[in-house]
Structures are given as C-alpha cells and as structure tokens.
Specification:
It is a single chain. The protein has 11 helices and 19 strands. By secondary structure, it is of the alpha/beta class. It folds into 2 domains: 209 residues, TIM Barrel (Alpha-Beta Barrel); 124 residues, Lyase, Ornithine Decarboxylase, Chain A, domain 1 (Beta Barrel). Helix 1 packs across helix 3. The two termini are 24 Å apart. The model has no long low-confidence stretch (mean pLDDT 96). It binds pyridoxal-5'-phosphate (PLP).
C-alpha cells in the first residue's frame, strides 16, 4: 500500500466547532460540510458533530442526500437551493432547508404539491453580486411566501460577505447595513457570518452563522495565524520518502528540469502529486517537512511524485516520514507558496488518498 495517507482528527474538528461557539455564543452555528467537508469526509464529520450542531450546510441537494443515506438526521441547509422543480419534493421529504437565490426557485416552490411545508431561507444580494435576490424584491417575495402553505413560517434572510477576511474593507459594513435593514423591515431572522466573520466580525453574528473552513482548523484570514483563534488543523497529509539519489552540479530534476542543482545535492522523491491534489503550481522552494524539518521542493510537481532537496539534512533514509501539510505545516502556507488558498487544496483532494480517522 502506498504510504500516502490523510489522517483526520475528528476531535480537532469538534474542538474547532467549539471555538466557533466560543466566538459567537449567542448564535446558532451551522456546520458547513460541503465539498466532502472540505475534503475531510462529510459523513464522518457529520457523525462527529451531529449531537452538537443545530444543522449542517452543503452546496447542493445531492450532497444532502448522501448524508441522509448515511443516516444523518439533522436538518441540512442546501446553500444553492434547488436546480429543478422536482427537487422541491425531494427537499420536503429529506427535511432539507432550501436557501433560495432566484425567483424561478420560488416559483417552483409555490406551485409544488407538498404534504408538509419546507423551511426556506432567502439569499439576499447585499453586494457580493453573485447569487441572491435584490433587497427590494423582498417586498413582494416575503408576503407571497407568508401566504403559501408550502413554506414554514420561520423564513431566514441570508447574505454572504465578499470580504470578511479583510478587516479594513468598508464593503463588509455596507453589506451588514443592508441585511440588517431588510431584517428589520420584514421582521425576519438573519444569517451572515462565514468563518472569517465568526472570528473577526462580531457585528456580523446573527441568529444563525455558517462557519466552514475554520472547523477544519485552518485560519480563514490568512497568515500569520492568530493564536487567540485556537484552531487545531484536523488533517495531516503524510507520506514517505520513496527514493534518494545524489546528483552533481548542473543536473536537473523532474519534467523539463525546472530545478537544476548548483552543487552536489541529495534529492528525495515522495509519493504524492497533483493526481492526489497536491498543487501542481507549487514552485521550487515550497516547504515540505521531512523528519519534521523543512526542505524545499525541487522541480515540477508531477502526477504521482514530487522531489525535494535533502542536502541540508543530516541523516535521511528511504521510508522517512513526510508531512505535506497539517499541524506542523499549515495548508495556508503551502497554498500561499503555490498561489492559491487552503480551501482549494482541501476541496481539491482527488479521492485516491485514503482518509484515516483518529480520535485525538
Ligand atoms: C462555503 C460557504 C460558507 C462557509 O464559508 P467559510 O469561509 O468556509 O467559513 C458560508 N456560506 C456560504 C453561502 C457558503 O457558500
């Protein structure tokens, strides 16, 4: 068996969820577990959190059905609502809460024949300009939903912040003003905060919050990590050195020889590549931990392998342990080196890396 394994601590995820509740104690904090719980395994994460959370959130209905089929019984908020009229009755049957972002979804809802009403959240576009109804549209929509037998009484207004990770961006305050005004006008509860807003925008905390990334122990507001957040990285992506060779000055490593030795060098190869989700754009020098020590990536990332420069290490052998990211090397740091964000690396795990769960 290939030694490349992602170990996931479910206790760390529970701990991180408690931090969301510590920061936003007056809110009900929904755990966002879309994209296979950001690569951590949605069913396992849901099993771990289900007696602690009021609800889960996923992006679309197939993700919600997968959780129900696995026996998860908590309400599941579907963040992009339905994609076809027929999904309305599936949602009703599954006790899914639908976050509706466009009029057509509401038309399907209003004309459906349902035994029991569905819980509806309304996405309001307060400035992200991606999804959501215009604030003015609520004047018509809210009374219509109120009058429909297909809709539960407790509609929630929801918006998503474009720049919650940037404390200096005035946009967040404008978005908050707009959604609070909508809430007041229509007398409805709201949900605003993602992870970044849970951690650093108390004004955005509301009846409901929607933390995702922070639950997996990574800081949603970049580096350096703020220790007061007290987040524990839940995933440890580990492998081993599978080959070692010495090369002379002028000799290159990997496809296209993108890295060329300037002196006699010891090159180690590790059994992970972009076929697993390691970012292909990680450049020479990207940090990798071998025996707990930082060494630089050398040469291009290929599908099944990467190479590193071991010249600086005293003693190193085939089989020595490697951490690609995890508690000792934040995924945000790898992401920054590769010109991406930790979210993309975690969500981009390809599924050929076994996920192994440990309880500490
Ligand atoms: C993904 C998502 C979240 C969670 O965002 P994080 O930054 O991961 O906390 C919250 N709300 C919506 C609508 C989302 O799509």
């Amino acid at each position: 068996m290939r030694p490349t394994i992602a170990t996931v601590s479910l206790d760390a995820i529970a701990h991180n969820y408690r931090q969301a509740c510590r920061f936003a104690p007056a809110s009900r904090n929904i755990a966002v577990i879309k994209a296979n719980a950001y690569g951590h395994g949605a069913v396992k994460v849901a099993e771990q959190l289900q007696d602690k959370v009021p609800a889960f959130a996923v992006a679309f209905i197939e993700e919600a059905i997968q959780l129900r089929d696995a026996g998860i019984s908590k309400p599941i908020l579907v963040l992009q609502g339905v994609n076809h009229a027929a999904e309305i009755s599936e949602a009703a049957a599954g006790n899914f809460w639908l976050l509706m972002h466009r009029q057509q979804q509401l038309d399907w809802l209003l004309s459906a024949k349902l035994k029991d009403p569905v819980r509806i959240w309304l996405k309001v576009d307060t400035g992200m300009h991606r999804l959501g109804l215009a604030p003015d549209a609520l004047d018509l929509v809210c009374p219509t939903l109120d009058a429909s037998d297909n809709v539960q009484a407790d509609v929630v207004l929801c918006t998503h912040l474009a720049s919650a990770d940037d404390l200096s961006d005035p946009q967040t305050r404008e978005q908050l003003d707009i959604i609070r005004a909508c809430s007041k006008k229509h007398g409805l509860a709201v949900s605003i905060a993602n992870s970044a807003a849970v951690l650093q925008w108390p004004e955005a905390h509301a009846e409901w919050n929607r933390p995702g990334y922070m639950l997996y122990g990574n800081c949603p507001v970049g580096l350096p990590v703020d220790d007061s957040f007290d987040l524990h990285p839940a995933m440890s992506m580990c492998s081993e050195i599978v080959a070692i060779r010495n090369i002379g000055p002028g000799e290159g490593v990997g496809y296209g020889h993108d890295w060329v030795a300037s002196e006699r060098s010891k090159i180690g190869t590790i059994a992970i590549g972009y076929g697993d989700g390691y970012p292909r754009h990680a450049p020479n020098g990207t940090p990798v931990l071998v025996n707990g020590q930082r060494v630089p990536l050398t040469g291009r990332v290929s599908m099944d392998a990467i190479s590193v420069d071991l010249t600086g290490l005293e003693k190193v052998e085939i089989g020595d342990p490697v951490e690609l990211w995890g508690p000792n090397l934040p995924v945000n740091e790898l992401a920054a080196a590769a010109g991406t964000i930790g979210y993309e690396i975690l969500a981009g795990l390809t599924g050929r890396v076994p996920l192994v769960y440990r309880s500490c």
